[in-house]
Amino acid sequence: MTVIAQAPALRADLRLVARMVTDGARVLDVGCGDGDLLAYLVATNNVDGRGIELSQTGVNACVRRGLAVIQGDADLDLGDYPSDAFDFVILSQTIQATRAPEQVLSNMLRIGRRVIVSIPNFGHWQVRLKLLVHGRMPMTRALADPWYTTPNIHLCTIRDFLDLAQTLGASMERAIAVDRRGHPHDVGDRALFANLFGVEGVFLLSRN
């Protein structure tokens, strides 16, 4: 089956992810959903793209688009991949839904020469305010499910993720906070500002 050549429209964090991926790279998209990012990278970056997705519905959607995607669980199956098998391993808006985020990220750093992760930021000022004022778990555009049905079991902030990367000894090549309008801002030494005003975080890591 031939991959659809037309590149799909992408949400803000995925556009940033795509810009970090070099042309012709070997890419593994973990938790690739229905394959929007993977299809975009194949069409525009000419990557050798592979995907792993837990949902059978997502896998079926990817296969219909001609994408090389298998059904699998990031918590269980990443350990089976050989080291340095890919140039980039991507995990977008998914690490908070894994059972063992530290292990998942460690495996990604082993499998790929570079790792790209995007997260919803639970430290955003509106999330804090809603929790303070209403005393209930907040719902936002990035955190759209009520607490009793959400797949997000390990919510974190931008600063939390920076700490995790440091704990694993990863080199943070770039850290970006995405604001409510989808505009990117380099975190740099302004982690407190990014944590308050970033709706999402996008990170490019590599092994030291």
In short:
The chain is of the alpha/beta class and 208 residues long.
Give the uncertain stretches in residue-range form. Answer: 1-5
- The tally of beta strands, per DSSP, is 8
Which sheet architecture does the biggest sheet show? Answer: 8 strands, mixed
Name given to the CATH homologous superfamily: Vaccinia Virus protein VP39
Number of domains: 1
How far do the termini sit from each other? 39 Å
Order of H and E elements: HEHEHEHEHEHHEEHE
Oligomer: single chain
CATH topology: Rossmann fold
| Residues in β-strands, percent | 15-25%
What gyration radius follows from the Cα positions, in whole Å?
17 Å
Overall geometric form: globular
Mean pLDDT: 92
Strand arrangement, major sheet = 3-2-1-4-5-8-6-7
Helix content: 25-40%
Class, according to the CATH hierarchy? Answer: Alpha Beta
CATH architecture group name? 3-Layer(aba) Sandwich
Instruction: Find the structural class using helix and strand composition.
Output: alpha/beta
Number of helical stretches of at least 4 residues: 8
